[in-house]
Amino acid sequence: MHAVTTVTESGEGLYTQNINTAGHALMADEPVDLGGRDLGPAPYDLLLAALGACTAMTLRMYANQKKWDLKKASVTLSHEKRTDAENKKFDFITREIALEGELDAAQRARLLEIANKCPVHKTLTGDMRPVVESRLAE
Predict the structure, then answer these.
(1) Is the Cβ–Cβ distance between 51 and 103 less than 8 Å?
(2) Counting Cβ atoms within 10 Å, is residue 52 exposed (0-12), middle (13-18) or buried (19+)?
(3) DSSP tag of 33
(4) Where are the domains of the chain?
(5) Taken in order 43, 49, 52, 53, is the CA torsion positive or negative?
(6) Helix ranges, the chain (H)
């Protein structure tokens, strides 16, 4: 799969960006307290949205394959910068998954395992970090 996303300054604010991805248009911005106009989610909010959406979709696919009674999956995420014992900063994401439906303890535990197999989760936490190649357009 070769996805193309284009991000362009909108001119509506100092940081406001127009995003076009797979034919869908959205906007990103920074909050007012960081100099933005808060016209869209901030970049880390978009990252959390990607992880949350991928998690819920992966759970839905798995539950449907197993014909389990998953009525609804909801994912709540937060992100913060933390410092470890050696004073090195790292990103810490909390992901809380709510499962609705007639699911026993074993099914719920399995769905939690499956959540960690969503492609975005694997990209963020896998042994092989993604490679980002940057170059100037001609």
Answers:
(1) no
(2) buried
(3) G
(4) 5-34, 43-125
(5) negative
(6) 43-66, 105-115, 119-125
Provide CATH code, domain 43-125.
Answer: 3.30.300.20
Interatomic CA distance for residues 59 and 75, integer angstroms: 10
Q: What is the pLDDT of residues 37-82, one digit of tens each?
A: 999 999 999 999 999 999 999 999 999 999 999 999 999 999 999 9
- Contact partners, residue 2, CB within 8 Å, separation at least 6: none
**Single pTM value for the model:** 0.91
Helices 43-66 and 105-115 sit at what angle, rounded to 10 degrees? 140
